[in-house]
Design goal:
The complex is a heterodimer of chains A (91) and B (177). Chain A has 91 residues and is mainly α. Helices cover 37% and strands 0% of the residues of chain A. Chain B has one domain: 2-Layer Sandwich (Alpha-D-Glucose-1,6-Bisphosphate, Chain A, domain 4). The chains are: A mainly alpha (91), B alpha+beta (177).
């Protein structure tokens, strides 16, 4: 069982994690999530604007998951951000 | 016909901890109906807001009478989109969640606002709103009663307790969650 303080965790820090909708994409998803969670807590929330180090892992993950979404015909195309009763993000 | 629900609670954890946990919210013991989770979009805007879109698939849970009335809806999972905006300067997170399919049965839109409790900065305020609508004639009220109960049940645990990794220090004051 993975505990806090373990040094041999490898690429998976998290003992419990979700699967991707594309079965083949789960490992890529977990790699991206690990990168993102670290950046989010240690950089973004602390006001560090030095940029997102996860673009490459995100790209690989997206290639896989977008293909799975198309294959399963999940209706995500053309859906406005913040969807119904719009909350507009400031640009 | 539609119904509107809203609630406000205090999460007894600081905002930055609630936010970090928000992305790692699944799985948890109260979310066994959530089957998959994927990030589809992320962007940091020029005003340093983080925009995200997540796709969740959930099992379609209906009470027994509804299963008999709507057997065609049982076979397919529910696809849910969750869009969110994090403002790390204002310490707010706004989320909007809605179902992409099964809309002929019901559409549920939920908006959440997580913000630092300014009177008590070690806490986070959560304001939830839900708009539930169905076009199915004659079934509006029972559907919405069931949905409201389900919504109220879902208010408590996974929102209130950000999970932390278990610690193996026997002298630690914090308990694993």
């Amino acid at each position: 069982m993975i505990r806090a303080g373990d040094t041999n965790v490898g690429s998976r820090d998290c003992f419990y994690s979700m699967n991707s909708v594309g079965e083949a994409c789960t490992e890529l998803k977990r790699e991206y999530d690990t990168c993102f969670n670290r950046w989010f807590a240690e950089k973004f929330l602390k006001g560090d604007r030095s940029g997102d180090p996860c673009t490459e892992s995100f790209r690989k993950y997206q290639r896989c998951v977008q293909a799975a979404i198309k294959e399963k015909e999940i209706p995500i195309d053309g859906v406005d951000f913040m969807g119904p009763n719009k909350d507009k993000p400031e640009s | 016909m539609g119904r509107y629900f809203h609630s406000e609670v205090d999460i007894k954890s600081p905002w930055h901890q609630v936010l970090a946990a928000f992305w790692q919210r699944y799985p948890n013991p109260y979310s066994t109906h959530v089957l998959t989770e994927d990030v589809l979009y992320r962007e940091v805007t020029s005003s340093n807001h983080l925009l995200s879109r997540r796709l969740l698939t959930k099992t379609n849970r209906l009470p027994g009478w509804a299963e008999r009335v709507f057997p065609m809806h049982m076979a397919r999972a529910v696809y849910v989109l969750e869009d969110s905006i994090v403002d790390p300067q204002a310490h707010t997170l706004i989320t909007k969640t809605w179902n992409l399919n099964h809309n002929t049965l019901m559409t549920v839109v939920e908006r959440c606002l997580f913000e630092e409790n300014h009177g008590r900065p070690s806490w986070t305020k959560l304001r939830r709103e839900a708009w539930i609508s169905t076009a199915v004639y004659g079934l509006g009220r029972p559907i919405q009663l069931v949905t409201r109960e389900s919504h109220q049940r879902s208010r408590s645990p996974s929102h209130h307790k950000p999970r932390r990794p278990p610690t193996r220090n026997p002298n630690s004051l914090s308990e694993p969650q």
